[in-house]
Amino acid sequence: MIEYNKLRVRVHLDNLRHNYRTYTRLHDRVIPVIKSDAYGHGLLEVSRALESEGVDTFAVGFVHEAAALRQGGCDKRILALLGPIDAADDALLWEHEILAAVSHFDQLRRLVATAETNGPLAIGLKFDTGMRRLGFLPEELPQVIEILSGSKLTPVMISSHLASADTPGREVDVEGQHAQFQTVIDGLAEAGFEVEANLANSAGALAFEQCRLSSLRQGITLYGGNPFCGTSLEALGRELKPAMDVVAPVMQVHPLKKGESISYGWTYTAEADSVVAVIGVGYADNYSRSLSNTGEMLIHGTRVPIRGRVCMQMTAVDVTALMGEGKGVAPGDEAYLLGGPGPETITPEEMAGWWGSISYEVFCLLGMNQREYI
Ligand SMILES: *Cc1c(COP(=O)(O)O)cnc(C)c1O
């Protein structure tokens, strides 16, 4: 948590709940993905807000994230998508009753051995159907079954992850992964293991009904990011409401005369007499320097462009348009870096576009600042 600044991240928990409900209309088993501190929205705060919606399983990344969620008071099923990395993680699975996705043979054999002393354990199995990160290959299933038989491990879930569900035109690739995954589900069933199967992330669940299977893993859309923004499928995410606003204070307001330049390197020169406001945010607050001369902020409901380079703790914006009769900007006013009220609200995808990134990274990085919940 970054604590040396005046930035505030405001999380609208009501919007988060609303976004979860848009998915419970698609399927009765939605697993909220709250890894990486709930994409910067706060692990415990988000889990508590969703527990009241009837969630029975949460997904996080590493096993110690799962342990932190358990220690924070969560009594629901907790899935650690990244599985146990070392012996310390292994022990946490038993200690906190965590369901971990097991993705390779070393890990599986280690858990089989540990179960001999620690007792029975329910596990998940992760299969690689094309992402080529983690997971057993479909053809490794017989060997997985062989190792499991006679062990104290019980598989209760299998998962795989789609590589291009958010890209219209890649339907064939998604269907290919789905078909491969189905062969694994069928193979396990033939071996007598009836397990919960999930494949779809946010985008996969919205666009591919056949990928919804026994449960969905909802990440980015929970936070109001639309994975189809800017594509032909954009309307699929029209009901989502971004849950994160980020504000920083105006520190000083002064004229920038025609021909004067501003900030390091003088990369911006005023084309006309103008007024700039210096905002208390910079790259040290995870506000990317790539927003220099590119991004916008929202002050009193009006968009204002960034002028010159983003500095470590300061960024200048052009507020000339706000300086007319009866208007004005003064030190202490709030500038929205993300979100904000009204039609000019800065969307996560727009911010990501200026940043040269995706909404996921915008949330994770800005979310490391001090948060308030409303
Ligand atoms: C992060 C993650 C998700 C969530 O993906 P979104 O695109 O954010 O919905 C789902 N499954 C796995 C395995 C993940 O790592």
UniProtKB/TrEMBL annotation:
It is an enzyme of class 5 (isomerase). Substrate binds at residues 133, 312. It holds the Pfam family Ala_racemase_C. Gene3D superfamilies: Alanine racemase, Lyase, Ornithine Decarboxylase, Chain A, domain 1. Signal peptide: none annotated. Its cofactor is pyridoxal 5'-phosphate. Pathway: Amino-acid biosynthesis; D-alanine biosynthesis; D-alanine from L-alanine: step 1/1. Residues 243-374 form the Alanine racemase C-terminal domain. Its EC number is 5.1.1.1. InterPro entries: Ala_racemase (IPR000821), Ala_racemase/Decarboxylase_C (IPR009006), Ala_racemase_C (IPR011079), Ala_racemase_N (IPR001608), Ala_racemase_pyridoxalP-BS (IPR020622), PLP-binding_barrel (IPR029066). It comes from the Bacteria. The active site is at 35 (proton acceptor), 264 (proton acceptor). It catalyses: L-alanine = D-alanine. Catalyzes the interconversion of L-alanine and D-alanine. May also act on other amino acids. Belongs to the alanine racemase family. This is Alanine racemase. The lineage of its organism: Bacteria, Pseudomonadati, Thermodesulfobacteriota, Desulfovibrionia, Desulfovibrionales. The gene is alr.
